[in-house]
Amino acid sequence: ALITMRQLLDHAAENDYALPAFNVNNLEYIQAVMRAADATDSPVILQASRGARAYAGDAFLRHLILGAAEEYPHIPICLHLDHGDQPSTCISAITNGFTSVMMDGSLLADGKTVASYDYNVDVTAEVVKIAHAAGVSVEGELGCLGNLETGAGDKEDGHGFEGKLSREELLTDPDQALDFVSRTGVDALAVAIGTSHGAYKFTREPDGEILSIETIAKINKKLPNTHLVMHGSSSVPKDLQDLFNAYGGKMKPTWGVPVSEIQKAIPLGVRKVNIDTDLRLAMTGTIRKNFTENPENFDPRNYLKPATALMTEVCKERFEAFRTAGKA
Ligand code: G3H
Ligand code: 13P
Ligand code: ZN
């Protein structure tokens, strides 16, 4: 059955675990997440970005996810809008069957201008009012995701501020977080701690200077009952980089968010961990390998099957690591 994000995150808080929220764009992603959830007995958050909605179409997405719910009736599923850019985007998601929406008011609707605090409070509170009336959960975002070494936003996948920000601006302020949650009534809060979207998060293995788990601890102290969300939390594992590069892919050396760092954040109130890049890399790496090894093949199922299988493995690892396993 489809349930709200709030229900899932409340259960996660009561039992001190987190849910990976996987970005999905088509059938194969959804099959991968559901097979992993089934194998590990995990509850599921499937999230679709504006790009995913444009790619697949809302009706296809909705029915694919209803298909997942029918195929796996014992697994609770939340359908979440990732990075809604304005209230109208959230409302159209609600009318299309999403049970949870993110209003990301940290940036203006152009996706690249840092918004004022008041703007963020206003648009987020507006969405909370409408969504809650419809029985839908809301995630807000406070602070700008970006690189603490360079001050740059994450432009690679089309959203992220232009120019550079200071360390203070790149880390969510705990006092402001307290004010934001009380003024908006969000069900979950995405925070900025030095992560960014895409493959190129860090140029070295991250330490506390460039990945601030300490900021999460400070926010959790002010807001012990608020569910926190980590964005840009793919681990970009070396083996997936190697697979992609071994078959003609061109990815420069890079580091993601280590699973061990995410595990430290879970007792500090992180209940939702967003992952997109790792599944992209697993799928594309496998397809590259297959194209190289089987140049005579032209049946897409022959390369989509192993691609889905590797995505399933990545999902299983995250369900186990975040202690989501066994909680369905
Ligand atoms: O937050 C970003 C996610 O990785 C979704 O990316 O907008 O390219 O679908 P996308
Ligand atoms: P990654 O690019 O690290 O997978 O982050 C995904 C994300 O935060 C989606 O909102
Ligand atoms: Zn994100």
UniProtKB/TrEMBL annotation:
Cofactor-binding details, from the entry: One is catalytic and the other provides a structural contribution.
Q: Which residues bind dihydroxyacetone phosphate?
A: 198, 232-234, 274-277
Q: Where is the active site?
A: 82 (proton donor)
Residue positions binding Zn(2+) 1: 83, 197, 231
SUPFAM superfamilies in the cross-refs = Aldolase
Which catalytic reaction applies to this protein?
beta-D-fructose 1,6-bisphosphate = D-glyceraldehyde 3-phosphate + dihydroxyacetone phosphate
Q: Which cofactor does it need?
A: Zn(2+)
Q: Which GO terms describe its molecular function?
A: fructose-bisphosphate aldolase activity; zinc ion binding
- Keywords of the record: Calvin cycle, Glycolysis, Lyase, Metal-binding, Zinc
- Binding-site list for Zn(2+) 2: 104, 141
* Biological processes per GO annotation: glycolytic process; reductive pentose-phosphate cycle
Which pathway features in its UniProt record? Carbohydrate biosynthesis; Calvin cycle; Carbohydrate degradation; glycolysis; D-glyceraldehyde 3-phosphate and glycerone phosphate from D-glucose: step 4/4
Family annotation (PANTHER family): D-TAGATOSE-1,6-BISPHOSPHATE ALDOLASE, D-TAGATOSE-1,6-BISPHOSPHATE ALDOLASE SUBUNIT GATY-RELATED
The record, for NCBIfam families, names: cbbA, FruBisAldo_II_B
Describe the task this protein carries out: Catalyzes the aldol condensation of dihydroxyacetone phosphate (DHAP or glycerone-phosphate) with glyceraldehyde 3-phosphate (G3P) to form fructose 1,6-bisphosphate (FBP) in gluconeogenesis and the reverse reaction in glycolysis.
| Name of the protein this chain belongs to | Fructose-1,6-bisphosphate aldolase
Q: What is the lineage of its organism?
A: Bacteria, Pseudomonadati, Pseudomonadota, Alphaproteobacteria, Hyphomicrobiales
